[in-house]
Amino acid sequence: MNGDISIQLKNLTVGYRRKGDAKVIAEGLNASLRTGEMTCLLGENGVGKSTLLRTLSAFLPPLSGEIVIANRPLDRYSVRELSRIIGVVLTDKSDLGNMTVSELVGLGRSPYTDFWGRLTAEDRRLVNESIEAVGITSLKERAIGTLSDGERQKAMIAKALAQQTPVIFLDEPTAFLDYPSKVEIMQLLHDITRKTRRMVFLSTHDMEFALQMADCIWLMKRNEPLRTGTPEDLSLDGTLSGFFTRQGIAFDRSAGLFRIEHRYECGVELTGNGLMADMADKALRRNGIDPQAADAKIKISADENGIRICCEEDETQCQTIGEMLDILHRTGVNLP
Predict the structure, then answer these.
(1) CA 173, 209, 239, 193 torsion: positive or negative?
(2) Listed residue (27, 70, 84) closest to 52, CA to CA
């Protein structure tokens, strides 16, 4: 299938059927996905993110409602047709033995090969291009079992690229990765939408990355309609600020990101500007000290020249945040 396509969810209910009984996980889902966009699915544990993704991938049948791909219901596609439309990357770590990266990525060509799975010269070219696109050319002959989690995830994404599908679904692609690898994978997926016009849809718990990089956000919450939109629009209309209501969590609408809401046990008056003042503010809040307390006895001034701490008639100078906190301990501020 070539060109732009769309995917629509129409009053979809997802869940499981066991011994004739249906267990509903989420219902009344209405949304759409568009070509050339990266959409991130967010929600609490157990809300049904993986169930929804597996239903969209045709691994689970809908309990009711409809999924429409390119104006055609999902259940009217054959398995072979879907394999040329949707590529899927799951978090499950299958035992791939001594299979090399090239061999794994070559499996992405299965929808196009003969009964024996033999790769043509064109297939091999696409495999090499896909490996190069995710930046693991030097690993192409390495066994999958010897790769790091981040390298393995790149190999799985390369396999999906080799499949040449206009749609790629991923379930928690940044799970188990360190911070730099998470950033790298999210940037890679975002670049794929821009450079190849693919539709990328992924479930994730990494909200910070999703809010900074996704074109569209889907928010799943129990017993509530699916909310969708750009991260900026969901911030402006108040959807995000009310989505995760937990003590100690606040939504910064100006930044469009969640932050920790500290509880203060004492306070000081902080003035100044620049990076030193910003870091002093951060350290004070982290230690339960309100940096903007009214009528505070302790005054702190921070700028590029250092930090000055005034307590009644005493004044102390220091150059680091650690020194500032030590001085506050000694001047009687009760740090938690």
Answers:
(1) negative
(2) 27
